[in-house]
Each structure stands twice: as structure tokens, then as C-alpha cells.
Specification:
Length: 111
């Protein structure tokens, strides 16, 4: 196992959701259930003790959900970086990617 963050972190999560057959391509975004806040909460809780000591370490959070296409699998992409205010005004948080977890499946249990 790698190092667990014990400092302030920024988290970016993109959820890739399968478009139901009943939904036409004219619906660009999955603006229906599952709720984005519940998805994010499940991921943040699941990373506690594995990626960071506690989800209270998260001081910056960006979350999106989108439909999958032919090139992306259903799941999530998660980026966790040490938080640094200077990164916001210079080159952006994403330039110092520390960890990326792919295809995180979120359980409905407890969330």
C-alpha cells in the first residue's frame, strides 16, 4: 500500500453512468437519480483509511456525472491531490496528480 494522505486534499470525481435504453440521446446529462451528492459521499467514505486518514481532509471537491460512450466504461475516475492554494491561481490542481483510482463502483448500502 502507498502513503495515506494526512494533509488537506483536493478531490475530483467523474461518474460515468450508463444511459438507459429508454433515454434518448437528446438528454445530454444524467440529471436524474442517482443523486450526485450521494455518489460522492459513498466514494469519500470508501477512501477513508485507504487514501486519506479521514474524509475531513477534503477541502476542495469537484464532482460531475456524465453518460458513458463507446470509449469509456461505466464507473468513476477519481483524482486526489495535496491541496495548495497557489495551484489554483497558477497551473491548476490537476497538474500535480497524486493518485488516480479507476472504475470505482459505488454501493447503495448505507448511502
Amino acid at each position: 500500500p502507498g502513503t495515506i494522505f494526512d494533509t488537506a486534499v483536493a478531490v475530483e470525481i467523474v461518474f460515468y453512468i450508463r444511459r438507459p435504453a429508454s433515454v434518448t440521446k437528446s438528454r445530454t446529462y444524467p440529471h436524474v437519480k442517482p443523486d450526485i451528492d450521494k455518489l460522492a459521499r459513498g466514494v469519500l467514505d470508501a477512501m477513508t483509511g485507504i487514501v486519506y486518514k479521514d474524509d475531513g481532509r477534503v477541502v476542495d471537491l469537484a464532482v460531475r456525472k456524465t453518460y458513458v460512450d463507446d470509449h469509456i466504461q461505466e464507473g468513476a475516475t477519481i483524482s486526489v491531490t495535496p491541496y495548495d492554494n497557489s495551484l489554483i491561481t497558477t497551473s491548476g490542481l490537476h497538474s500535480t496528480l497524486a493518485r488516480q483510482l479507476k472504475n470505482c463502483k459505488c454501493s447503495k448500502e448505507g448511502h
